[in-house]
Specification:
With about 200 residues, the chain is mainly β. Helices cover about 15% and strands about 45% of the residues. Strands 1, 13, 16 and 17 form a 4-stranded mixed sheet that branches. A 4-stranded antiparallel sheet has the order 12-2-14-15, with no helix packed on it. Strand 10 and strand 11 form a beta hairpin. The chain is globular and about 50 Å long.
């Protein structure tokens, strides 16, 4: 009986300790979600849109994203990253490609199939991506102050997740049009909708 009680006591103590250890993580405030729809005129530029929060205080770890060249296209067509992030430009076509940006002032040279080049985006803004060998190729990289941004799909919808509770200015970048900034208040664990009209 004594041995059985000792084992039960030990298991109980381990269970309590594990719950206490997990409690701080469980107690952390959950972020909120911003979602909505962007109505773009003309509609063919809908997918060339990014919705983003203009300023969110914090330090954000630098990440690496990939923009591929495949099927004679840049994939994705629009990429949203955070300032300081690195983009790996891959080539999965059977021909050589090049990457350069008139706004960014960089030219990564020519690289062959299954090769890649990288570039660190040290300032905010939107940078056109072009290939000097294939002028029909076009893409955009949006570099925000913070990671709370989202590209818009062909239906015009977007979702930004894990946003810290607070009130922010939310804005739109579009390759051919503009929309008025709005104010949005995000509550813990809640979803708020913000829609935009983008016009030339």
């Amino acid at each position: 009986m004594t041995i059985r009680r000792s084992r039960c006591t030990d298991l109980g103590q381990l269970l309590v300790a594990s719950l206490l250890f997990a409690a701080p993580g469980l107690a952390r405030a959950a972020g909120g979600t911003i979602t909505g729809k962007v109505d773009v005129t003309p509609p063919k530029y809908t997918e060339e849109t990014v919705v983003y929060l203009k300023q969110v205080a914090g330090q954000y770890p630098h990440k690496t994203a990939t923009m591929d060249q495949k099927g004679m296209r840049f994939l994705p067509h629009v990429l949203a990253i955070t300032v300081g992030d690195t983009v790996n430009f891959a080539n999965h076509d059977a021909v050589a490609h090049n990457v350069f940006s008139p706004e960014g002032g960089y030219n990564l040279g020519t690289f062959g199939p299954n090769e890649s080049r990288t570039h660190v985006f040290a300032k905010t803004g939107t940078f056109t991506q072009l290939c000097s060998i294939h002028p029909e190729m076009l893409a955009f990289i949006f570099v925000g102050q913070n990671p709370y941004s989202a590209t818009v799909d062909k239906a015009g919808t977007y979702t930004i997740t894990d946003v810290p509770p607070g009130t922010y200015q939310i804005a739109v970048w579009n390759s051919h049009g503009k929309a008025a900034d709005q104010s949005v208040t995000v509550a813990e664990g809640k979803t708020v909708k913000v829609n935009f009209l983008v016009r030339k």
